[in-house]
């Protein structure tokens, strides 16, 4: 698999899915081990990460938004420091145009937008102009309130309809289909029934026209099934990610890169490929 980046660069993998390692430049992300900067990022690269995802604004349930300036202050130094010593592709977990512009100038490659270009539609124009791959995620509401209503008539159909509409918007603004990745937003305004339906059917989203990112590492739905806290959810995460990849996901966003790579190597040996 290959994902083309701005400036004629690309990232490829022989495994069934790309591995995106999480670096949270935040004080409040739910998994403390993900918090950090250059050291955390380089450790994930050494473990085999294809992409490093840097976020400066927590989106865990109950969290609040921060200012553009504060998010830039958290994110840009990490991007600059990493780019000085590594060519690894860098994704920015943001929904703000000013943050993405600053991060892109510092060396970032990919936009990971939890608002699916709704909060700042002009992000679509910037991504199209710079040929930046975009990740479009489904959520309901905002992090501070998104778990207040998690009921759906048909969760898969509703998420599928929303993501199809956001992909159509992205294409209408000039973003190429091969630069669009969809994320069903596991845990973002969803109950466990919805979460697990989306994991097991993720390859069907948008009719299979776009790559799918699965981001479920150590999340609460894994904890409720296993009865374990964040520290004990690795095995459950690997199992769910494997099912997602077997169902069509081509990218996994994880806290535990080395273990994810091992899991994907086994899937490859068993004959499961990516797209």
From TrEMBL:
Matches recorded under Pfam families: Pterin_bind
Keyword Transferase appears in the UniProt entry: yes
GO molecular function: dihydropteroate synthase activity; metal ion binding
PROSITE patterns associated with the record: DHPS_2 (PS00793), PTERIN_BINDING (PS50972)
Domain Pterin-binding: 17-265
Keywords: Folate biosynthesis, Magnesium, Metal-binding, Transferase
EC category: transferase
Pathway: Cofactor biosynthesis; tetrahydrofolate biosynthesis; 7,8-dihydrofolate from 2-amino-4-hydroxy-6-hydroxymethyl-7,8-dihydropteridine diphosphate and 4-aminobenzoate: step 1/2
Cofactor: Mg(2+)
GO cellular component, one term: cytosol
GO biological process: folic acid biosynthetic process; tetrahydrofolate biosynthetic process
Catalytic reactions on record: (7,8-dihydropterin-6-yl)methyl diphosphate + 4-aminobenzoate = 7,8-dihydropteroate + diphosphate
Catalytic activity, EC: 2.5.1.15
PANTHER family according to UniProt: FOLATE SYNTHESIS PROTEINS, FOLIC ACID SYNTHESIS PROTEIN FOL1
NCBIfam families: DHPS
Name listed for the protein in its UniProt record: dihydropteroate synthase
């Amino acid at each position: 698999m290959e994902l083309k980046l701005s400036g004629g660069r690309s990232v490829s993998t022989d495994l069934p899915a790309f591995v995106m390692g999480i670096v949270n430049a935040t004080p409040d992300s739910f998994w403390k081990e993900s918090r950090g900067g250059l050291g955390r990022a380089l450790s994930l690269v050494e473990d085999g990460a294809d992409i490093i995802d840097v976020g400066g604004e927590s989106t865990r349930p109950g969290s609040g938004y921060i200012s553009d300036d504060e998010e830039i202050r958290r994110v840009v130094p990490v991007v600059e420091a990493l780019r000085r010593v590594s060519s690894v592709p860098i994704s920015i977990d943001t929904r703000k145009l000013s943050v993405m512009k600053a991060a892109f100038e510092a060396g970032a490659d990919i936009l990971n937008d939890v608002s699916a270009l709704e909060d700042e539609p002009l992000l679509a124009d910037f991504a199209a102009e710079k040929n930046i791959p975009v990740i479009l995620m489904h959520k309901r509401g905002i992090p501070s309130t998104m778990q207040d209503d998690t009921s759906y008539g048909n969760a898969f159909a509703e998420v599928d309809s929303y993501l199809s509409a956001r992909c159509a918007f992205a294409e209408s603004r000039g973003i190429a289909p091969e630069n669009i990745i969809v994320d069903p937003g596991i845990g973002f305004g969803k109950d466990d029934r919805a979460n697990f339906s989306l994991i097991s059917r993720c390859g069907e989203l948008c009719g299979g026209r776009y790559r799918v990112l699965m981001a479920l590492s150590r999340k609460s739905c894994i904890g409720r099934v296993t009865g374990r806290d964040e520290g004990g959810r690795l095995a459950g995460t690997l199992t769910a990610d494997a099912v997602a990849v077997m169902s069509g996901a081509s990218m996994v966003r994880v806290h535990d890169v080395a273990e994810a790579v091992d899991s994907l190597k086994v899937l490859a040996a068993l004959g499961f490929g990516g797209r």
